[in-house]
Hints:
By secondary structure, the protein is α+β, with helices and mostly antiparallel strands. Helices cover 21% and strands 32% of the residues. The strands form nine sheets. It has an eight-stranded mixed β-sheet with strand order 32-33-35-34-36-37-38-39, sandwiched between helices. It starts with 16 loop residues before the first helix and ends with a helix.
Amino acid sequence: MKCVSTLAIGAAMAFGMSNVTMAQDGVPGPEEDPHIWLEEARSDEALAWVEAENERTTAHMTADPRFEQLKAEALAIYDSEDKIPYVSFRPDGLYNFWQDKQNPKGVLRRTTLESYRGDTTVWETVLDIDALAAAEGKEWVYKGSTCLPPEMRYCMIALSDGGKDATILREFDMQTRSFVEDGFVIDSESQGGIEWLDRDTLLVSRDFGEGTLTESEYPFTTRLWKRGTDLASAPEIYRGETDDVWAGASLLRDSAGTVHGYTAMRGTSFHDRAWYLQQDGEWVRLEMPEKSSLGGIIDGQMLFSTDVDWTVGDQTFPADALISANLEEWLADPNDAEKTLVWAPGDRQTKQGGGSTASSAYINILDNVIGKVLKFDYEDGQWISSEIALPDNATVGVAATSNESEDIMYSVTNFLEPSALYYSDGSSTPEIIKTSPAYFDPAGMEVEQFEATSKDGTKIPYFLVKPEGMVMDGSTATLLTGYGGFQVPRLPGYLGTTGKLWLEKGGAYVLANMRGGGEFGPMWHQTAIRENKQRTWDDFIAVAEDLVKRGITSPDHLGIQGGSQGGLLVGTAFTQRPDLFDAAIVQIPLFDMLRYHLIGRGASWIGEYGDPRIPEQRAWIEGYSPYQKLVEGVDYPEPFLWASTADDRTHPAHARKGAAKLKALGQPYWYYEETTGGHSGGVDNEQRAQLQALQMVYLMQRLMDDNEGE
């Protein structure tokens, strides 16, 4: 969930007895909820329950004669030596993090552009996570690095024990390929990060102890830490509010590494920001909409993005626009500096991130869910834009950019064709330099796009991948998936393991683009949050009904799958319309929405769902919360719920409690829990293949075996 991606920030929550035994403001306590004990992620009792559930599910699924082949097929894809090694540009080379059967935890490695573009790439290992974990007796998961510009030699390496969002940080020298002796070290687990001011100074936003975390358990203070001093005594340079979701200060830095000042942000809700600029030692509040963001610096221009209309003087910039101001003027007087339109969306268009080179900005846009990349340059006092020549009818985006040159790479993908990586030096048409191998045979498969009509009349698009000439008699086993939250779009992408394990076996695949997501811009999201969140569930159900109406499938052969917010989506769907589905895979979900603010990072998402402690908001949440909607006397479609013990974001409690309640009701279900990996993965390829095969066996037993028996 974007409780995923750039906003995917969370730290471990340890539940004390006071947290799980108190009912407050109408929130269910142990008298109303007998399964609250499962919110203790690593209690002996909870882990014993997990072990028993895992044994039951594994014994059943692995006994299926298809399991070993499915696992082997998935593992071959995950371990493939020919998959595209996506890279990032740094002054000393191209960096890649790689996992395979020899390196299940992964290696950080580098090469040259010349070698990368050649037929055989020669890699140099920089940091071996498997060797480090073995030496230290830890289940280290690599969580990235933050390096000192412009040389990027010295970096703070983030490591997670078991895959949690919470990390430790250690200073690493990329040149000597070793941790710096007596270097910066933050060895207490926390969410939050650092920025380098200079070689001997860090900005640090972490858990500094009592009074430094918000209710959502995120940092809201920033300290200036000098080398050789105690972090605990480092001076605080910024403090947000305890009722913020998160807050912190950061550096305003251009592509050359020059620092132009300090900025700060208070996340007043998951979707709202209050922005500040430091002037003469004071934090000046910026007159920007709360649904807007500071961007980067290009050609001496400061960039901004807004998710709502933004009126400045007599000019109104539309929602989803990209805006600029002269950097020097803005630094001198940020609220009165003249603002200029860089780009505004057309009908059914939206921007989706991008990147920048030494002198140009690149923006990914979606045009009716089809990808494009636009290049922007500031010349002679105005913005000049051009479209990059990339394949049509595909999902395209900026994959990597260089701060030192105009080098740039683009990713291109769709459902059936292997993904490709394009390169340009900024002056030439992009050329293919890497292509993913074909993991499945797409012969006889086709992609179509349809629209379903939701409950309120809104047209909801969806993609269908199916066998050509498929008989529309409702007999095709069909897997429907989606997300529908946090302004995150779900886009066509090479299906890989799904193609091999599902499509090749005769199944169909459907990707729905519900409101709540980001496929059509900010309003597509904002019209389906909080009191209107039911619209997302209505959209998903409408797509399912449309599949049945068209004869693509039938309830006996229709399964649904989703993770995180998508797990909540699946939970609402099978509890609101149990008659419409025969399989439901509920992955790392939100599920108990009346206690979600007390579990994991839940309190940070009140801006998306609402606050169950407030009666009016509790009413709309209770109307769909899947955990509360599990009741006696209803025939549910035997769901498969799974989670991760190390998930400190949504937390395994949601899936655990859903399974426990189904068991108490006498309803059939399956449950599985990864003991490592966390919310964003981090498990090795063997574990990934195991879990993929378990789920595919489940789907085939539910949706295909019925076909064979008819």
